[in-house]
Write a structure and sequence with these properties.
265 residues; alpha/beta; Rossmann fold; 2 domains; eleven-stranded mixed sheet; three-stranded mixed sheet; 8 helices; 14 strands; 32% strand; binds S-adenosylmethionine
Length: 265
């Protein structure tokens, strides 16, 4: 039976714990809580059609098929049927597949913090005209996805030199020629002269708080920052730091114990 369905329904903002109890049989990587504008939703992802229908019978809501880009048992992360991120080798670069093998750098797409940003990137528009900065690039996965989505000016940096090396190799694995600028450097020390349409940052929330002012300075007037890596318990102080820095909180999404925040200037 294929686990290619999702069930979802709206819920009250205060009901997350209640829905966790109701849906306790589903692990946190399948159970997704999303806030979109003023509405809140609970989803159970990657389940069989029969399970999705039984959730609908029991709790109401909606089921739909997640269209796979290609049906394969080795898919690791299917991004709405539009892209997939996989650790399995591809013989040549593919426009809809990101091949990121597991190596000594964070970011194969299997972690909810990375997956949340990747899913949001698919929802965003205007990549062709955008300039993107990937802060703490790890395996390079977010910068590489920005390039896959059509972004022509991408800069990724990490304080770990191994991550920069691995990111470059991952770019070679996924594209015919290099185009992304990679650099080793630490947040707060590395010199960044430009401002960006998109800032992508999957970082420990202490760093997000500490550098909130710098992030604002790195954003173009209509630019967006998509950041995750925030434990839910760290969300209130992180939001306070963003607001204090003059950033507007546009959206908060939560998956299990992790939160992702979308900010604008
Ligand atoms: C959670 S990983 C995210 C990797 C990848 N962007 C992803 O979303 O999967 C955080 C990355 O930030 C890097 N990092 C941590 N502190 C940093 C700092 N002060 N400056 C730059 N990079 C940093 C780490 O080396 C690590 O690769």
């Amino acid at each position: 039976m294929k686990n290619n369905h999702v069930w979802f329904r709206s819920m009250a903002s205060t009901e997350e714990e209640l829905w966790k109890e109701r849906l306790v049989e589903w692990s946190s990587d399948r159970l997704v809580f999303l806030q979109s504008n003023r509405s809140f939703f609970v989803h159970v992802y990657a389940i069989s059609s029969a399970k999705a229908q039984s959730l609908k019978r029991k709790w109401g809501g909606t089921c739909r098929e997640i269209k796979p880009y290609e049906t394969s048992p080795e898919i690791e992360l299917n991004l709405f049927g539009k892209f997939k991120v996989q650790s399995r080798e591809i013989s040549q670069p593919h426009p809809k597949i990101l091949w990121v093998p597991a190596e000594m750098a964070f970011g194969t797409g299997d972690h909810p913090t990375t997956a949340m940003i990747l899913r949001q990137m698919i929802r965003e528009k205007g990549w062709q005209q955008a300039e993107t900065l990937d802060i703490g690039c790890g395996s390079g996965i977010l910068a590489l996805m920005a390039r896959k989505l059509g972004c022509r000016k991408v800069f990724g940096f990490d304080n770990d030199p191994a991550c920069v090396r691995i990111s470059k190799t991952n770019e070679e694995r996924n594209f015919e020629a290099p185009a992304i600028r990679w650099k080793q450097g630490a947040l707060g020390k590395i010199k960044i002269k430009k401002s960006y349409d998109y800032l992508l940052a999957n970082l420990y929330s202490g760093l997000l708080q500490e550098y909130a002012h710098e992030f604002k300075g790195l954003l173009k007037p209509q630019g967006k920052m998509i950041c995750s890596g925030i434990l839910r318990i760290d969300l209130p102080p992180t939001i306070r730091a963003f607001k204090k820095a003059g950033l507007q909180v546009k959206q908060i999404q939560t998956k299990g114990k992790w939160s992702m925040v979308i900010l604008q200037k």
